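Rotation project, supervised by the postdoc (A.L.). Task for the rotation student: set up a whole-complex structure prediction and record inputs and outputs verbatim in this book. Inputs entered:
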Amino acid sequence: MSKMPMKRLSLLLLLQLTCHFSGGSCGKVLVWPVEFSHWMNIKTILDELVTRGHEVTVLISSASTIPNSSKPSTMKFETFPVSLTKSDYENFIERLLEEWTYAAKDSFWSYLSTVKSLFWEFFDTALSMCKDAVSNNKLMTELQESRFDILIADAVGPCGELLAELLKIPFVYSHYTSPGHIIERNSGRLHFPPSYVPVMISELSDRMTFMERVKNMFYTLYFDLFFTTYNEKKWNQFYSEVLGKTTTLSETMGKAEMWLIRSYWDISFPRPLLPNVEFVGGLHCKPAKPLPKEMEEFVQSSGENGIVVFSLGSMVSNMSEDRAEVIASAFAQIPQKVLWRYDGKKPDNLGPNTRLYKWLPQNDLLGHPKTKAFITHGGTNGIYEAIYHGVPMVGLPLFAEQPDNINRVKAKGAAVRLDLETMSKTDFLNALKQVINNPSYKRNAMWLSTIQRDQPIKPLDRAVFWIEFVMRHKGAKYLRPAAHNLTWFQYHSLDVIGFLLACVAAAVFVITKCFLFCCRKFAETGMKRKRE
Amino acid sequence: MSKMPMKRLSLLLLLQLTCHFSGGSCGKVLVWPVEFSHWMNIKTILDELVTRGHEVTVLISSASTIPNSSKPSTMKFETFPVSLTKSDYENFIERLLEEWTYAAKDSFWSYLSTVKSLFWEFFDTALSMCKDAVSNNKLMTELQESRFDILIADAVGPCGELLAELLKIPFVYSHYTSPGHIIERNSGRLHFPPSYVPVMISELSDRMTFMERVKNMFYTLYFDLFFTTYNEKKWNQFYSEVLGKTTTLSETMGKAEMWLIRSYWDISFPRPLLPNVEFVGGLHCKPAKPLPKEMEEFVQSSGENGIVVFSLGSMVSNMSEDRAEVIASAFAQIPQKVLWRYDGKKPDNLGPNTRLYKWLPQNDLLGHPKTKAFITHGGTNGIYEAIYHGVPMVGLPLFAEQPDNINRVKAKGAAVRLDLETMSKTDFLNALKQVINNPSYKRNAMWLSTIQRDQPIKPLDRAVFWIEFVMRHKGAKYLRPAAHNLTWFQYHSLDVIGFLLACVAAAVFVITKCFLFCCRKFAETGMKRKRE
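Outputs recorded:
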């Protein structure tokens, strides 16, 4: 028997014990993540998997922007080289988000067209990285030899499903949403009725006026018919080449064993779903930890009035000076103390009640009993933390799903929405006063918190359960809808409808012919009789 | 303070403790059950509610067939008088089931038409009982004064939702399925694609040939367009009268907070669902208890060959002599010991390896390690017990959902289906040998058992969680799809489609007019020039 250091041996024993106690089997997990806030969410699942004794390997490109501080030593990070440099990638993403933020002010069609081209650009870069990974023989051999039990991928960044196919292992998606639900449709072709399911990026609610329903129908048709066509062609061709068979990106994505959706019915409007879809939104939420001493003192100094927390998320820590001044001067007029995550020039109008921070322990602040309101860009992670702690919000959405998120919380009566670029000081002040002083906002936020917390089993446990289930049983095909086996015209029963219409047409034809034949016979007999 | 006997006081304290420990609030539960096997399933939920300290009152008619032995003293049974006698009701149900069993041999259309008239007859009787309950002032006053927190009803027997509306309390359904899914559609108007979701009573699977899809489309259209029209009219009128507003049965049923479906993805084919629908099939399943001594000895005497369990369910304990002889003589030829639930004349061909019983501890037998096969009529409760214990089946379906149930287990490779009336001794013998000796049946049955057992939380706990949730929060409206607020043409976006078509038509009209006008102008100019 080879020698093994005592420490390593006891660690292994501990891992096996954890596995045993968690009820699952210890497994090897490969991860194809998407970065930024997506990484933060999937990391919560990976941390839990590590705690339960599973071995986690995260595949990242050499251009990855994941900071080292966010790479736990309990996981293995396998880096593969790509042609793009880290700074190129960062600049690229920054430009994409800036354009998206800017496009939000455009007209309906121009906005959609910009979003479409941004998506294609993003997917083109993802495709180039995917090619770099798959064509890397050393990497692929290493992965093959590692014999992973499962691959976890973020559905918004394709390639994971291709790797899983190549490695012949089952895979599970983490996903939030996509414009027109085009990505999640791969879970089983489910089409949502446009009459009450608002298309993501439409910013509509589930209770629409007639004209809103017309708008939603436009969005539905647009995304169904025009959105992915061109870009998917490239992916389909690439996947077919690599897998050596004619296939598509959709078909490959459709093989996912389970879709873990980072949403729940607290902010999502009830809509149809499939059994292979599990809503685990808020899985990263947890009770607040104590604040750093200086911060706690500042918070406590707010007295009865409490505090306001302001952050535009992990990707935006800056804004134009003009906007910062408007916001700072509004803050100066409220009795609350304000904690503002801001990395720009200190505004001249900054009141003594406001403190700037380069980073905030957001969850700990939102869970603090003195917190009265949260000013947010509407990112899903932040929204869920506020919901978990029952904090009403003022939303200043910028891009992606943020406007929809804010609109949803607004529809549930727990937020006021403003436009960061155009709002006046008075608008901002009124919105703040409204969510702080009108008790309905707090009440509604507390109800969302109740929905989030009062579940039969915690979202994180559900997510981990399904990942372990797939590892235990090498899949969960029994949840896979048979819709996957049908072509699109079969799925919509177009062949059956065509056949039935043809039958009706044939029947009408035969009956008409018979009728005409009888009429003619009758007429002929009549003529004959007349002649006789 | 009034005197209270010590025993009663400590019981109350115990109940409060249980409530506290169960995490829920102690509540008062009113139940509007459907009898027979439906009662057995809902009773499992009620027993659990009682264990958790809730007060359960079951409303039953004076014609109720629920035997006293099945009425736990831990629940209150409130009986209200109805015009029908118990024996009339028993005879009525017996005739209904007999006609349904017989109709199953008829042709497609005649079968559907018989089922339709049987449903209407059943619903007419239910309506008469409902009228007797609602017009009973004493009963209604008593119920009003009892201040219940929730009503639990079986969706196949209407009236519960009306009572809940009258008592102004939230309600939850227990439900399995209905022909064409017409009842469960009330959970939120969800229409299933007929291309891969087989209509219940069609006996199809989720993988259909072209002609099967045509058949399924026929069923879908039939149930959508013709099935409930006449009968619902009576209910709609009655509900409108009682509630003093124009309403319908569907609208009132649509107010259910939650639908607890007595199925799961082990036998149900994956299909779309809504967030207010929870699949809790198999909630009554539990580990086997030891058998009575005599039975255990008989079972043990089977040695390596094991035993076969045969029961046609709680409603059928008899069959024609001819059929009994065929079955008995087949049993006599197998090496297994057979335990047969049978109340008829002892067959002449009965082998020494077969014993007849008026009643069988079915779950304990199915959970016995010696059990090799289960011969069943395909009732949902029995099927789930066999699945839970991983026992392959021979199905002899008679009526209602039984043929579909058997076909589903057959599609999953864990059953062989035969026709009780027409099968020969050889057919039966071959089927038995197949499920016992071909290991694939056992393997598939064990996989179904794994699916059933390996869930994040047990079905019974999920069912009780949602009932307690509704009591804690006086509803679960956040799970209610906004589809309920739309008319049928709004739901299907027919108004939007009409509007868009009208817009297109108007645009075409204007463009054509402009084009014609230009042409005319052009022609006139040409003519003018020619003239000049």
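Student's summary: Chain B touches chain A through 52 residues (CB under 8 Å).
Supervisor addendum: Chain B has two domains: 28-283+458-484, 293-453.
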